[in-house]
Design brief:
single chain, 270 residues, alpha+beta, Aminopeptidase, 8 helices
Length: 270
């Protein structure tokens, strides 16, 4: 086995497309990152065995994203970890299928790695007939930026890692400019969802959030269902990641028509 590293995202995507698209919904994260890159990332590489790709690695932030099919991945992970150690790249964590990601973490930082989230990857091909709450779906506009900024902060604080108000404003402004955020409005705005990471045949959803004052009224279900109905007119499927420790959100997505297709884990290095 050996590692081949690339500096050009377009060249790298051309090499790994066939490998990743075999499980496009499962590999939506690395595919979506590669297809939306506007600058050269710090690290793109794959591991090959006898000329065949066995592991893909993408890193645009401090977290290394791993993608590989089921099978004999252990040696590929060991080769990858040795190569990265030689490259002396700073890693803040790893994301990928549980087995490979956990094995990598044990090799990289066995005493200082911590599971940040166990995730489910879901795919939707058709929307179920679900009851919609009063209101309507609409695209977020510039006038919504202050509200979205606040909600993005709240979402990150509850579900991910806290961010600064400045970072929240930057995310909101960029997403509004790219027409990515959608809102459910019932006399006032009550829920949000973002479309992200389009791939060849699908698109992902994330940052689904309803403030506590508006929860348990079906607004998130209505918001996600309505956006998926729009997206499925353009894409073959929608996909998303869930926190497996949150049974409420997982049930909501199953009711809409999402089905689990794989699991992933996000591990932080301290």
């Amino acid at each position: 086995m050996h590692v081949k590293e690339f500096s050009r995202p377009d060249e790298f995507l051309g090499q790994v497309k066939e490998f990743l698209i075999k499980q496009e919904e499962i590999n939506n994260l690395p595919l979506g990152i590669l297809m939306s890159l506007t600058a050269v990332p710090p690290f793109l590489a794959y591991v090959t065995e006898r000329g065949q790709i066995s592991l893909v690695m993408v890193m645009t932030t401090g977290h290394l994203v791993l993608a590989g099919h089921e099978g004999d991945w252990q040696q590929a992970i060991e080769v990858a970890a040795a190569y990265l150690s030689h490259r002396n790249l700073p890693l803040s964590g790893v994301i990928g299928p549980p087995g490979p990601a956990q094995h990598f973490a044990q090799l990289w930082q066995p005493q200082q790695s911590k599971v940040a989230m166990e995730q489910g990857i879901y795919r939707l091909d058709a929307v179920n007939a679900v009851h919609l709450s009063p209101g309507r779906l609409r695209l977020a506009q510039r006038k919504d930026q202050d509200l979205l900024s606040s909600w993005i902060e709240d979402f990150c604080r509850e579900a991910l890692t806290p961010i600064s108000p400045k970072h929240g404003r930057e995310i909101a402004a960029t997403a509004i400019a790219h027409k990515a955020f959608y809102l459910w409005e019932d006399k006032e705005v009550v829920s949000m969802v973002k479309k992200t990471r389009p791939t060849f045949n699908g698109i992902a959803l994330n940052q689904v959030f309803t403030p506590k004052a508006f929860r348990n009224r079906g607004y998130a279900t209505s918001c996600v269902t309505s956006l998926c109905s729009l997206l499925l007119a353009e894409y073959k499927f929608c996909c998303l990641y869930t926190d497996l420790a949150n049974p409420t959100s997982n049930e909501i997505y199953r009711n809409i028509g999402f089905r689990p297709v794989a699991e992933s884990v996000s591990i932080n290095f301290s």
